[in-house]
Structures are given as C-alpha cells and as structure tokens.
Amino acid sequence: MSSATPLGRIPVSVLVERRKASSPWIDYVWTPSAVLCGVPETAPWTPISQTADVTTFYAGAAEILLYRTETGNYRDNLAAGEPKLWILLRPTGVEPAYDLLAVTADPAEGESFTEVGNDLVEMVPMPAPIREAVAAFVNAHHVERPVFKRKRDRADPEALGRRPRGSEDK
Description:
It is a single chain. The protein is an alpha+beta fold. The chain has one domain (8-143). Helix content is 18%, strand content 36%. It contains 3 helices and 7 strands. The protein has helices at 71-79, 107-113, 128-141, and strands at 8-20, 28-37, 46-50, 54-66, 84-91, 98-104, 120-125. Strands 2-1-4-3 form a 4-stranded antiparallel beta sheet. It has a 3-stranded antiparallel beta sheet with strand order 6-5-7, covered by helices on one side. Helix 1 (71-79) packs across helix 3 (128-141). The radius of gyration is 24 Å and the shape is elongated.
C-alpha cells in the first residue's frame, strides 16, 4: 500500500468461503475464493450460497489501486501463466470473523501482506476483465528503466598492508 497517488482504480468484490473444519481446535476454515468485477448493492458478509459444509459470503468491496511505479510488477504478473490477485483479510475476533483490507495485482505488495502474523492472505485467479484493465494500465504507463551496474572502488593495497611497529594509533 503505497503512499503515492494511484493513477488507476478497479472496483471489485471479494467472495470468501467458510468450510467446516475437521479439527478439534477450530470450527471453520476461511478462504478467499474469488474476486469479481464491480460492486453489488449487497451488504458485506451476506451469504451467497450454502451447502452442508461450505458457505460462500460476499465479503465486501475493495479497489485494486494501480501505481505507475509498479507497472513492472503488474507486467510480470500478467506474463505469468495465470495472473493472480492477492486478498488481505484481518481477523476481528468477533462476527464477522474478518475485515477485508485490500486486494492487489502487485506480487511484491501481495508478498508483503504475509509479513503480519495473523492476517489471512490468499491468491486467487485474476478475472479476464481485470486482466485487461491492468494490461491497459501497463501499456499506458510503463517506462522501461535501464539497469545501472555499480562499479566497486579499487582497493588500496597499501591500506591493507602491515604497519611498522609503533605506528599504530593509540
């Protein structure tokens, strides 16, 4: 989540599945399952579908923020076999069990989400309309930056040599 101003925004909806756990320590396993284009007029955490063991919820709305400085990361994500989106949910300790914090198309930002211990971070496939919007953003804003290799300073061989006795600084 950059402090720069995003040049692009894609409104999305997030779906989360709650599965009955086969564990004596927890009742349910929560997993972000999909990102959809657009935002419905539905309250967050509304159940969408339900079976015996799985309930799918509309977790809420988010925006994928697109920054000009991250176009290289978006391009690499799009070049992958199946581009992904990263979803960040934070446990609340009350109902609903999670807050939807962010959705990103930037792999580096998605990886940075995993640094906080209790957050739930999952990758989901990027839908085609979002892929097209991200690709259009990359085409419009990407600037290839040259790679500059730094050269090391040459070592002074005399600086590494032994000093005569009595010349050490005291």
